[in-house]
Amino acid sequence: MKKLRGHPQSLYPVQTKYCGGCGHGVIHRIIAELIDELELREKTVITNPVGCAIWADLYFDFDSLQPPHGRTPAAATGVKRILPDHLVICYQGDGDMAAIGAAEMLHAANRGEKFTTVFVNNAIYGMTGGQMAPTTLVGQKAATAPNGRDPGEAGMGYPLKVGELLAVLEGSRYIARGAVNTAGNVRKTKAYIRKALEAQLRGIGFTMVEVLSPCPTNWGMEPVKAVEWLEKQMIPIFPLGEIKNTLEEER
To answer: Residue 169: left (phi > 0), alpha (psi -120 to 50), or beta?
Structure first.
């Protein structure tokens, strides 16, 4: 019998620290499979900052760098410029990328830095206790918004649509949004990340794939309910698909 799937070489066979139902493990698997398929394990560097992303180096069997919170794009810029023949991946959560790291994210994209960002959007701060994030939905409850996010209340505002924000910048070349709530969406998300990585290998500018991911623990839900909530509540606010694709123009 032919074996069609096995454990990715780029992923250590260790027990996960992520909560039950968390999407990070699925996203890790996607990235590891792609690195194996591209045969670039010895030439890949992932930058994973403070937040749930900080555990990524426990699972990926290739080089990693842990920048301070929010400074991931700045660190990735340096790595890519020093090692232009390497595949450089920013692995960021919504608190890291869209809050404290917003300036670094915007300027890296605007400059057209030639690395790829995988942006995990679970609409809340995960590791630090479920505080409201820039991507938290209107009405969604959080530790710092116990009655739900209210745009009319000082300081809360509206959910930040990072993909659409970066798409208007001239330095960005490929922006997409996927999800890991269904097998079909996992396959599509993998295809988006593959496009982004292959664009980086061709020396094209900034690429980013946003991935909607469940966080049952901080959403206060069972894993199955969290997947349903992502489908019914998050996807209408953060529509899936390619947001910007100029790759054909760059050939």
So the answer is: beta
Tell me if 120 is assigned to some domain.
yes
Sheet of 206-212: strands edge to edge?
Answer: 63-65, 44-47, 87-93, 116-121, 206-212, 172-179, 241-245
- The single residue listed with the structure tokens 């894993």 is 223
- DSSP-derived pairing of the beta strands 172-179 and 44-47: unpaired
pLDDT in tens, 121-138: 999 998 888 899 999 999
The backbone torsions φ and ψ at residue 121, rounded to the nearest 5 degrees and listed phi first, read -105, 105
| The total number of structural domains that make up the chain | 1
Residue ranges in 42-122 assigned as alpha helix (H)? 72-82, 94-95, 102-111
Q: What are phi and psi of 204, to 5 degrees?
A: -80, 160
CA atoms within 13 A on the CB side of 59: 23
Considering only CA atoms, which of 87, 126, 121 is closest in space to residue 237? Answer: 121
The parent domain of residue 151 ranges over 43-216+223-250
Tokens of 34: 């792609």
Task: Give the pLDDT confidence of 58-75 residue by residue, as tens digits.
Answer: 999 999 999 988 899 999
What CATH code is carried by the domain that includes residue 243?
A: 3.40.50.970
Record the tokens describing residue 38, joined without a space: 């591209």
Average pLDDT, rounded, for the chain: 93
